[in-house]
Amino acid sequence: MIVLHETAPGKLNLTLDVLGQRPDGYHDLEMVMVSVSLCDSLTLELGTGEPWSVTCDRSEIPDGPENLCWKAARAYCDAAGVDPDGLRIRVKKHIPAQAGMAGGSSDAAAVLRALNRHYGRFSDEELRALGLRVGSDVPYCLFGGVALARGRGELLTRLPDLPKELYFVLIKPEFSASTPALFRALDTAGVTARPDTAAMLSAIQQQDRNAIGANLQNAFEPLVAAQYPQVKALRQILLAHGAIGARLTGTGSVIFGLFCSKLRAFSAALELEELCPQVHLAEALPAPPCVHPL
Questions:
Q1: The CATH number of the domain where 149 resides is what?
Q2: Which of 42, 83, 90, 109 is least surrounded by Cβ atoms within 10 Å, i.e. has the fewest?
């Protein structure tokens, strides 16, 4: 039996813009994203001689063929023409579920990375194309680091790493928002909080921490905040503790604050732990060395 280990970093949206609906039913997006140090851990066992299985230490995560890890493994084995002779995937979760942090997509990307490291069938670009069959966030999760994502999220441009000494406080409230419902609502209401993507790109290029914080924006946040007042309240707590910016990531429900001071980030996290069951400290991750610019 062969055992493979892989980590799956969470992601945050520094910006998220919805440009419009496409003929294929998807939406054209424009997003600046960053991988963070809050990671899931995966173990793949190949050659078990038993039926495939996915197990997770959280009961709410599906454990059968509907799990994205299973779908990723199936897509890889079919495309590569390989048979692992039994496969067991074990997932230890740290990334909150239904949180806008691409936890499931990152787990799927980790499966693709691990299998490709073992079998070596695909280039990075080919692996990302394969990942898009599994989910729109999977190509970015394979790319990692700081990136501008367009299209469904698969058109990726490498950006410089974030400046040093930036810290994230991540808060997962108890609610979760429906992504399809939010897209439908946005199609009706239109975008009322459009990010200035160019300003964010400039801030990252210039390594200007305050400008990065000032240009955090998410087109979905007004819709989510209107339905869940906790979003605004939690943002206000983060800003009151010295965050240089605070926003929703993805379609939620994680709200994050960006801090220049580790002490202030820790202080904010302590207070928020009394209000929310899941609060995490994290830092930005650099681009993986195995991934190269397109």
A1: 3.30.230.10
A2: 83
